[in-house]
Design brief:
The complex is a heterodimer of chains A (322) and B (190). With 322 residues, chain A is mostly helical. Chain A contains 11 helices and 4 strands. In chain A, strands 1-2-4-3 form a 4-stranded mixed beta sheet, with helices on both faces. Chain A is elongated. Chain B has one domain. Classes of the chains: A mainly alpha (322), B alpha+beta (190).
Chain lengths: 322, 190
C-alpha cells in the first residue's frame, strides 16, 4: 500500500455529521408535533400542512433539477468551449488538469461577466455539473496557482455533491417557512371571517391549532435556518480542504481567498445585491456584513470567516511539509 | 467515492496506477510498424508540485537519481504555463524500455514519498518521416493511455489520434472517454 499524506479532519467530519443528525431530528420532531396537534384537533388544519409540504417538494425538486440553468441565468453566465477565446482556453486547461488529477469527469465550463472575482459550481449531478468563473477572476489578478486553487475548491463541491446535500438540507426550512405563511394567512382571513360571523363555538377548536402550527413553524424555521447555515460553512471548509490537498498548494488557495475577499469590499452595492441569491454557491461570499453585527452575522453566514479558512489551510500546509 | 464520503464531504486523494506504463515499449513497436511513427527518445513526467520542504527534497532526489544514469543527457526540469512541473528524460530513439524505466523511477519516488496523488500524466514523444508529431499520454489516475497529435496554432489532428487509437487498441488500454483526452499544448519534449 502506497504511503499517503492524506489525513481526514475527524473533528470537522464529526461536527458535520452531528449537524446533519440534528437537522434530521428537527425534521422528525416537526412532523411528529404537527401530526399530534392535528390529530388532537379536527382534520380541518390538514390543508395548512399538506400544501406547504407539496409546494416545498415541488420548489425543492425544481431548484435542484434546474440548478445549473437557474444559477447560470442568474449570473448571466455563458457556457464556453476551449476555443472561445484566451480566457476560456485558460479555464479549460486548468479544469482539464484538475479533473485528471482527481480522476473526475469533466464538468461544463462557463464564464460570467462580472466585476467580482469569484467562482461557483452548480448542477444536480456530476454529469450536469457546471463550473463557472467570473470574467474578473480570469483577468490576471490571480496567478495560475491561485486560480487553480479556486477551481479545485469548486470541483470539490461537485465531488461532494453539495448541491444535492444542501437542497435536501434546506427542504425542512422551506416547509417550515411555507407553513408559517399558510398558517398566518389562514388565521388572518379564515379566523377573522369566522369571528365576523359570530361562530365562536365553532372556531374555538380551530384557532389554537392554527396558532400552534404557526409557532411550531417559526421555531422549526429558526432552528433549521441556523443548522443549514452551519452545515454550509462546514461544507465550505471541507471543499477548501479537499481542494488544497488535491493541488498540494494550500497557501495558493489561501492567498486567492485573501485577494478575492479583499476585492469584495470594494465592489459597488448594486453588484452585491444582484449576486445575493447565488451566495451559497460562491467561492467567497459576495454579501458579507462586518462591524458591530459581526458575531451575529458569522452565525447566519453561508461561508466561514476568512480567518477560520486561512487557519485551516495553514494546518494543511504544515501537514504537507512534514 | 462512497456514499458516506459524499455525505461527510471528504475526498481521499486518488493514488496513481504505475504498472501499465510497461506496456509502452511493445506499443512503440506496433506504432512504428502500423503508422510509421518512431519514438524520438524523449519522455516526460508531469506532476503538480506540492508546497513545502518534503516535496522539494523528493524532487531533488529524483533529479539526482536520473542524472546518475549512464549514457543519458541530464534531465530537463520545466514548469508550464499552468505551473505544473515536467521532468524530461532523453534516450536514444530505439531504447523505449530504458526511457520507461527512468520514468518509472520518477513515479515510484514520488509515490514512496507519499506524493502519488500529485502525478498528472506521463508522455512519450513520437515523430513520423514527414515530421508529424504525436505523443502517447498516460493518465496516472485512470491507468489509461490516449494519443495527442498537436498541429500548429493549438489545433489537434483528431483524425490521426483516432487512427492511432485503433492501431494501439490491443497493446494499450486506451481511455474510452474522449472528454478526458485533454490537450497538453507545448508539453516539453514533444
Amino acid at each position: 500500500m502506497a504511503k499517503t499524506r492524506y489525513a481526514p479532519d475527524r473533528g470537522l467530519i464529526a461536527r458535520m455529521g452531528l449537524t446533519m443528525f440534528l437537522l434530521g431530528l428537527v425534521f422528525v420532531a416537526f412532523i411528529l408535533v404537527l401530526y399530534l396537534v392535528l390529530s388532537a384537533a379536527h382534520a380541518s388544519g390538514a390543508a395548512i400542512v399538506f400544501f406547504p409540504i407539496l409546494l416545498a417538494l415541488v420548489l425543492g425538486f425544481g431548484s435542484f433539477y434546474w440548478s445549473d440553468k437557474i444559477a447560470l441565468r442568474t449570473a448571466q453566465a455563458v457556457i464556453v468551449g476551449p476555443q472561445d477565446g484566451p480566457q476560456a482556453a485558460q479555464l479549460h486547461g486548468v479544469v482539464d488538469r484538475i479533473c485528471a488529477l482527481a480522476d473526475m469527469p469533466k464538468p461544463r465550463v462557463a464564464i460570467a461577466p462580472s466585476r467580482m472575482p469569484n467562482a461557483f459550481a452548480t448542477g444536480r449531478n456530476s454529469k450536469m455539473a457546471v463550473i463557472c468563473a467570473t470574467s474578473s477572476l480570469l483577468d490576471g489578478r490571480l496567478n495560475e496557482q491561485e486560480l487553480e486553487g479556486v477551481l479545485a475548491h469548486e470541483m470539490s463541491h461537485v465531488a461532494h455533491k453539495d448541491v444535492a446535500v444542501m437542497t435536501i438540507a434546506s427542504f425542512i426550512g422551506i416547509v417550515a417557512a411555507l407553513l408559517v405563511r399558510f398558517a398566518f394567512y389562514s388565521e388572518l382571513f379564515g379566523g377573522g371571517g369566522g369571528r365576523g360571523r359570530g361562530g365562536n363555538s365553532n372556531n374555538g377548536g380551530a384557532l389554537p391549532v392554527v396558532l400552534i402550527v404557526l409557532v411550531v413553524g417559526i421555531v422549526v424555521y429558526a432552528i433549521s435556518f441556523l443548522l443549514i447555515r452551519l452545515l454550509s460553512r462546514y461544507r465550505e471548509l471541507s471543499a477548501d480542504r479537499s481542494g488544497a490537498l488535491l493541488t498540494g498548494q494550500p497557501s495558493a488557495l489561501a492567498s486567492a481567498l485573501q485577494k478575492v475577499s479583499g476585492d469584495m469590499a470594494r465592489i459597488p452595492t448594486k453588484d452585491l445585491r444582484a449576486a445575493e441569491p447565488l451566495n451559497a454557491f460562491y467561492f467567497a461570499p459576495a454579501f458579507a456584513r462586518g462591524g458591530a453585527g459581526a458575531s451575529l452575522s458569522a452565525l447566519f453566514s453561508t461561508h466561514p470567516s476568512l480567518d477560520r479558512r486561512l487557519k485551516e489551510l495553514a494546518k494543511i500546509s504544515d501537514q504537507l511539509a512534514r | 467515492m462512497g456514499f458516506l464520503d459524499t455525505l461527510l464531504g471528504r475526498t481521499k486523494p486518488v493514488q496513481p496506477k504505475l504498472d501499465a506504463l510497461f506496456a509502452l515499449p511493445s506499443a512503440a513497436i506496433t506504432l512504428e510498424a502500423a503508422a510509421g511513427f518512431k519514438p524520438t527518445g524523449a519522455g516526460s513526467v508531469c506532476f503538480r508540485a506540492a508546497e513545502g520542504r518534503a516535496f522539494s527534497e523528493i524532487e531533488k532526489d529524483v533529479r539526482q537519481l536520473l542524472d546518475m544514469g549512464a549514457g543519458t543527457t541530464p534531465v530537463e526540469v520545466t514548469t508550464d504555463s499552468y505551473s505544473y512541473t515536467w521532468l524530461v528524460c532523453h534516450h536514444s530513439g530505439d531504447d523505449v524500455e530504458a526511457l520507461v524505466t527512468d520514468l518509472h523511477a520518477v513515479n515510484s519516488s514520488l509515490v514512496d514519498g507519499g506524493f502519488g496523488p500529485q502525478l498528472l500524466c506521463t508522455l512519450v514523444a513520437f515523430r513520423d518521416d514527414s515530421g508529424r508529431r504525436l505523443a502517447i499520454v498516460y493518465l496516472f489516475k485512470r491507468g489509461t493511455f490516449y494519443p495527442f497529435a498537436p498541429l500548429d496554432g493549438e489545433r489537434r489532428d483528431n483524425a490521426l489520434e483516432l487512427q492511432v487509437r485503433g492501431q494501439l487498441g490491443s497493446d494499450l488500454k486506451i481511455e474510452p472517454d474522449l472528454s478526458r483526452w485533454f490537450p497538453v499544448w507545448g508539453a516539453p519534449g514533444l
